Every structure is written in structure tokens, then in C-alpha cells.
Amino acid sequence: MIHHLRAAGVGLILDTRGAAAPAVLHWGRDLGPLTDADLIELADAAVPAVAPSSVDAPLRVSVLPALADGWTGRPVLAADGVRGPGTLTGSRRAERELRTTTSWGDLHVDTRWELTDEGVLLVAHTVRNDGDAPVRLGAADLALPLPGRARELLDFHGRWAAERRPQRQQPGVGVWLRETRHGRGGHDDPFLLLAGVSGFGFRDGEVWALHLAWSGDKRLWLERSELGATVCAAGEVLDDLTLGPGEHYTSPTLVAAWSGAGIDGLSDRFHPWIRSWAGGPSRAGGLRPRPVTLNTWEALYFDHSLERVAPLVDRAAEVGVERFVLDDGWFRGRTDDRRALGDWEVDETKWPEGLDPLIARVHEAGMEFGLWIEPEMVSEDSDLARAHPEWMLTAPPAVTWRWQHVLDLDHPDAWTYVYDRVDALLRRYPIAALKWDHNRDLLAPGTGRQVRALYRLLDALRAAHPAVEIESCASGGGRVDLEMLRRVERFWPSDTNDPLERQGIQRWTGILIPPEHLGSHVGDARAHTTGRVSDLSFRLATALFLHAGIESDLTRLSDAERDGLRRGIAVHRELRPLLHSGRVVRADLADGVLVHGVVSADGHEGVFSYAVLDRPGGAIVPPLAVPGLDPSLFYRVDVVGLGETTAIQDAAPPWFAHGARLSGAALAEGVLAMPLLAPGGAVVLRVRHAALPRESDVAWTQGKDAS
């Protein structure tokens, strides 16, 4: 039978006729309603010619292509006993979900296919050993075909404080392989693999994307064959996993999407789908408005005491903070980053009455209390390491990383210890949120068991404490994936708060992750990680669109700086319902300028950022083209007042003083003159359907108080 799955303009056609392993005949634009006869005609028409000096039958690239089928490319399935072609032994369908089974004797691969309402394709394998002998499993990747026109490839590299940097190329014949062995995604994680027509951008071009929902070692790859086939695939790095008799392995889920409208079209699929489950009823009533968060790391480091922290609490409340998170340094013996990880007891010298007085102060100020932990790690200089050296995954004399080792969470006693300590903290104190850090690579093979033990740990803690929110931080953005998002509410995309760096990091991370799940904080004027100095308005504009917060010692800021923060936070809180529910839209980088925005579902309003990252190519910058609006409507455009920004001009464009009224078609075409901002400057615009009431317009004009 040929199965045809359709949703939201996407089609998947899977051929399960005969005894061979299933083959994907089409994945991409919906081909419309097709009868069984139509599907057979399509399948027959797609059979390729037979090339000279090749297999003597048309090459059929199945979902599990093997040498015996004539596939001489990179193996998708590598296991003992996989010698001849696989045999289709089962196929069943329910609505837009399909399950197929391909067998090699006693080894069976059950593949689950689902096309969501949003057109996102989900694929996962379960490999079963029903034989009497163990089976070594070297790979169980998930592969999908691509058309020949998908010539250009975009993926990501990076390092600490500089994550998700894009790289583009047009690979020739052969394999483009990205493989990570960090035991987590890593700062260079190719968390998305995008293949599309040449020159695809944010607003145009066909593009196909893969994400592996997995927090450990992985590979993503694309292979173009001389025989015409192009395959993209992803899978966990297994390091020769052995399946005993009766055992099975379930792969991470491959999350794939097609767009006919550029990269933004991918976000139009990913974001609604993620919002359908990431804020669902399993999250203690759904994802509530994201509280403005102050994190104490860059304000305090390890300098903890009630006398030191209490004034920061008071200042945080004054500027509108809603959640106060106490970062590293609160537990016994933690005076620097070389000791005490694993000893999760409140330091009685810093906090002689425990955390109760601080939490009371936080609550009295009208804020929630959050706490930093790093429970997957242990310091050599700790009571835990001295008592249980056998619990270390990377024990001395292995190299340390930030002077720490990894706890073996697959060890039942170590898992129970960590669960008990975190559970005790959550029962002892009214903690609303945990910042869950992970500050090193594992540097060990076969780390899949560690990752799955982490999932069990988080699942158990969430079940016991469903109201507690968790932020995933991995020395910044070293573990950002959708399997983690099933267990956390927030990612920390990078340890840098330099807004110039953050603009790009947030732009690319946001292709996949909706903005409300990404933390972005206003740091000090001089960035902690780069030393670069930036205007407060630029820092506010950079944090505005995401789960916003502050990473600064407010007690050392001037009254004017705190007042600027207060006004910026008020703007964020007012716009938050739109920012965290609308469509994310972006323009392609032009003349050193990044443009992005959020548009309401009905297209009646939007908020847009115009950020200058580099010197323009000319004395007068090109007009702004505003993407994503309804071309048939007229809009009122106003500047959101976030404070002074540096401009190299004798006069701003005249419309800046009083706003503008333009059609969506004109705004998309690019008629809006922009100021001559210096690099590190940004303007935020509010755009509303001109028929909407304007009673609050005064709050949004340049230089006015937005509180």
C-alpha cells in the first residue's frame, strides 16, 4: 500500500508495497488529494533509469538503505545480522500516524511516522532483538530523501559565549557530516540542519530542516550520490551499543519540517507545534506569563550574605523584577568554582539562618524565589567525592573541566542521592524555579545512558514538584534541544550578555525555539564576556522579545540607569502577551542590520527590532522593509521609547517625531526611512492596524515614560 499523509500544506508519501523496506516517495509541498490509483501512477513515474555499470534494477533508496539494495552510501542501520535486504513485516496506520516494521531475521526495526497538525514530521526507530544472541548496534539513524534542487546547506558551529554561528555551503558529491561527542549538545551543536534551494533566505525559497531531539552525542549528515539520490539523516552516536536477547533500543525522535516560504516558514511550523505541548496541561496548568527574572551571577559571583543580597532584592523589586534567582555560591564551602559541587547543603557561615530570611525578603517584595544548582557534577574537593569516588563518571586522574567531574547518574545510588538532595531543597524551601546548570563536556564514550538517566531524574522531580519551573543552562547554550524542552520551561542560550553577540545567537536559536522559552538578560554596560560597552537602549531592545531579565548589580547603578531599566521592563510586560504568542518574522541581513519582529495571529499588530551590528555601506542607510504584515491593511508606526541610542546624524527622519501611517504593502516594500545609528544601536517599532484605538499611544512614542 502507498500511504499519503497530509497536513498544513505538507505531504509525505510512503511506499509500503511488497516485501522491501518502505521508501519515501515524496516529502515536501502537499500534492493535493490523491486516490490510490493516483499514488500508484506517481510511484511508477518516479522510478529512475538504470545507469551503466550499476545495479541491474532501478535504485530504490528505502528508509533503511542497505548495501544489498545497491546503496553504497553511508550506512543508516549498522548492526550484526544486517547483511541482506530488509523485509517489510508490518504496516499499520491511524489518521496521520503510521508504523512500519522492517526485519532482518530476529532483528526488527519498528519505525513510527507522524505528521502533526502543523506539518512537522516526527520519525523514530525502535530496534528489537528477538533472537537468542546479543546484537551489536552501531547506528540506527533516521533518513529522509531530498530532491536534487536542495543544493545549499546551512548548519551551525560555535564555542562558549558564541553559540549557533551559521555556516553555509553547497556540498558536492559525498557526505557532509556533523558529529558531536560532548555528552551534551555542545556549544558547536549543529542543532538544525537546513537544506534548500540555492539562495534560500528567511522570507523565500524552499527549505527542509532536521533537528534531533536528543541531549547527548549525535550526528546529522547529508549525502549526495553520483547515482542521483540525496539523503539527509540524523541519529544518536551509539558507540557499539549491545542489545541482549529480548532487549530493544529506541532512538531519539527526528523532528523535520519543510517550508516553501524560507526559514521563517519553518518557524511557522515549529513554534505552534512546540506551543501545543510545551505549555500544555502537563505544565501545571499551562505556561503562564514569563516572569521578568533577575539572576545574581554577574552581580554577586560567590559573594553571598543576607547583608549583601538584601539591597539587591529591594532594587530588583523597584524596577519591576518578578523572579529573583540566587546563583552559584549559596552551598557549603562554595567560595570559588574549584570546590563543593555535590554538597547541596546551605552554607551556614554565609546563611546562618538558612535561606529563609532571604526568601522572606524576596516574597515580601512581591517576587518569586529561584535557586541555581548543578546536580550532575561533583568537585574533587567535596564531601561527596571523598565519600563516594566510585560515583564519578570521570574519576581522577581524568582531566577536569572547570575543576569538576561528572557524576554517573546511571549508578542507582548516585541517581538516588541527587534526587534526594534536590527533592529535599524543594520541600524545605518555597522555590519556584531552578536554574539547572551543566558546566562541562562529559569526555566519555557511550554517554547515552547518562542522558537517559538525566531524563528519568528530571521526570521524577517534575512529578514530585509540578509547580517548579526549570531553566536549562549548560555553560550557556550547550544543551538546547526539544527533548530537553519537554522537561524545562526555559533555556539560557548563551553565557554572554553582550547584546551585539546575543542578537545573532538569539536570531538563529529562535528558528526552532519559541521566544518565550529563551532567556535574555540586560547585563552591565561593559559586557562580562567581551568587555564591549553598549547603550542601555540596545541591551533592552535585545532582551525585550524573549523571556526577559537582568544580570547586573542594581545597587551599583545610578538612579537614571535604574529608571531606564524600570521603563524598559514596563514596556516588556505590556508587550509580553504579543511577544510570546505571535509569529516570529525576520528579514535577511542587509548592510549590517538585523531586522526581526513578532506579528499577531490576526496580522493587526506587531513589534519590530531594527538593530545595527556593523557600519553601513553608505552615508544614508536603505529604508526598512517590515516583513509579515497584512498588505491590505494600513498601520500606525510608532517608536517604542527605550532610551537614548547613539546616532551619527544631524537630524532623524521626520516621521520619528510623530509616527507614520502606511499600508502593509508599503511597509513590506521598504519605504520607512531609518536613523543613522552607530553599530550597537537599535530602534524598536510598534506597528498597529490604523483602525485600532490609540488611547495609549503616548506611552509608546520616543522618549516618553512607558510605565
Explain briefly what this protein structure is:
It is globular, with a radius of gyration of 27 Å. The protein is built from 13 helices and 36 strands.
Low-confidence stretches: 695-707
SS-based structural class?
Answer: alpha+beta
User: What percent of the residues sit in helical stretches (DSSP H or I)?
Assistant: 10-25%
Radius of gyration: 27 Å
State the end-to-end CA separation. Answer: 62 Å
What is the assembly state of the chains in this entry?
single chain
- Portion in beta strands: 25-35%
Q: What does the main sheet amount to?
A: 10 strands, antiparallel
Summarize model confidence as the mean pLDDT. 95
Count all strands and give the number.
Answer: 36
Count the helices. How many?
A: 13
Shape: globular
What are the salient characteristics of this protein?
about 700 residues, alpha+beta, 10-stranded antiparallel beta sheet, 8-stranded parallel beta sheet, 13 helices, 36 strands, disordered C terminus
Describe this entry's structure for a reader.
The protein is of the alpha+beta class and 707 residues long. Helix content is 20%, strand content 30%. The protein is built from 13 helices and 36 strands. Strands 5, 6, 7, 8, 11, 12, 14, 15, 19 and 20 form a ten-stranded antiparallel beta sheet that branches. It has an eight-stranded parallel beta sheet with strand order 28-27-26-23-22-21-30-29. α5 (356-364) links the parallel β22 (323-326) and β23. α4 (306-319) packs parallel to α5 (356-364) and α10 (499-509) runs parallel beside α11.
